[in-house]
Write a structure and sequence with these properties.
disordered N terminus, about 40% helix, Rossmann fold, about 400 residues, alpha/beta, six-stranded mixed sheet
Length: about 400
């Protein structure tokens, strides 16, 4: 009998043995409602910056998850003969990795989450230090930093394409073809540091010169004039820029105000359609980044449904869409594995569950496979160059073989 107990059940029994029976029973029932009941709750955890400079980004991901959860609940979720309602429990970490780790533990140990979604690399890596030890949980990792899966964490599923997919195609699209000077003005987050490191190596390999690193904290700095001026003093031909969309747009606008007319290579966290809301779209001309969601065929229905649901006319971007289509994969994996509280079994079932998800959840470059190290992969990935006339010229991107 002991061998059949889940890790969460064992933890709960241990806690009850030390006292606090009533409170512990409540916490243990949150994830599954087991013990012979015919209904229960699946809690999906979410830790992100939903206030501060990255709030718009954090809320986009949150909305995508919530929309999927609402639609999954409408269809009905049954795991091992028990019907479940899925709920999203969100905590604000203000983009601080240390807080993310604390939030993840709380979401798992107090709220009963078996899966925790985290949309920033620093927070994901902090949670990876915790999720395979005393506290076991599966991470829905929404960051394109390839180190997330390269570290071999067995309970991580990486959702978006790796940013390494974009770097060489981006370099080939800018006017200098990599042989000019590259200014560095990206976010100083873990994600931004890794992007900058990889882009620097690729630029130098292409024969170009890389200038001093002026990366800044997009979440806390509000006056970008100084760092922009410092970067422009070196007369760059291309500037690497990017983080959350709003501050990225403001930095680009500041560079244009200071007379910069060169190209921008924009990190994939920033989205063209969203940046257009925060600056004159002309400032974005002569830039390369990931393609707007509208560039992908078949996205019109999803965009209209999202805008109606949230009574919003704001642009709907890939952050929303990719999390919307990822969430049902995790739920389907629970159904396939026959468990809501065994993260290892759920992770093992991801691969065979992808094709079982209702096709309505497939929006843009939807995953059709998962690598051994936990990276969801898809075809039909695109980036875009915004030309001098403000038109988006989409081009295909190949994901590296893994």
């Amino acid at each position: 009998m002991a061998a059949a107990l889940s890790n969460r059940t064992i933890r709960c029994v241990a806690t009850m043995a030390s006292g606090g029976l009533v409170a512990t029973l409540a916490a243990c029932g949150g994830a599954g409602g087991g013990g012979g009941s015919d209904s229960g709750t699946i809690t999906i955890g979410y830790s992100a910056g939903i206030s501060g400079g990255a709030a718009e980004y954090g809320k986009n991901v949150q909305n995508g998850l919530q929309m999927a959860i609402d639609e999954v609940n409408e269809e009905g979720v049954t795991v091992d003969g028990t019907e479940y309602t899925v709920e999203l429990e969100s905590l604000d970490d203000q983009y601080q990795p240390g807080t993310t780790g604390t939030n993840a533990q709380r979401l798992v140990e107090q709220d009963g989450a078996t899966v925790v979604f985290i949309p920033h690399a620093g927070g994901i890596k902090a949670a990876q230090e915790l999720n395979s030890g005393r506290t076991e949980f599966l991470i829905g990792a929404y960051s394109s930093d390839p180190e997330i899966v390269e570290g071999g964490n067995p309970l991580t599923v990486m959702i978006p394409p790796s940013f390494t997919s974009y770097i060489d195609p981006f370099i080939s699209k800018v006017d200098t073809q990599g042989k000019g000077k590259l200014g560095l003005l990206a976010t100083s987050s873990e994600f931004g540091q890794q992007w900058t490191k990889a882009a620097t190596a690729a630029w130098e390999d292409a024969g170009g010169e890389v200038m001093a690193n002026n990366n800044i904290n997009y979440g806390t700095v509000s006056d970008f004039a100084g760092p922009v001026s410092k970067t422009l003093s070196g007369n760059p031909d291309v500037i690497l820029v990017g983080g959350p969309s709003q501050p990225t747009a403001i930095i680009i606008e500041e560079a244009r105000k200071q007379g910069y007319d060169g190209s921008f290579m924009i990190l994939d966290q920033a989205k063209f359609e969203e940046m257009e809301e925060f600056t004159d779209p002309k400032n974005l001309n002569n830039s390369v980044g990931i393609a707007p969601l509208t560039a992908f065929e078949g996205t019109e229905d999803f965009i209209s449904r999202y805008q109606e649901k949230y009574s919003s006319d704001k642009p709907v971007n890939a952050d929303i869409a990719l999390n919307y289509q990822a969430l049902p994969i995790f739920i389907k994996a629970m159904e396939t594995a026959g468990t809501v509280d065994d993260p290892a079994a759920i992770r093992e079932a991801i691969g065979e569950s992808i094709d079982k998800v209702d096709p309505k959840f497939r929006v843009a470059f939807a995953p059709d496979r998962v690598t051994d190290n936990g990276h969801l992969l898809a075809d039909d990935l695109q980036a875009a160059y915004r030309n001098e006339q403000g038109q988006y010229e989409s081009f295909p991107i190949d994901q590296p073989k893994e």
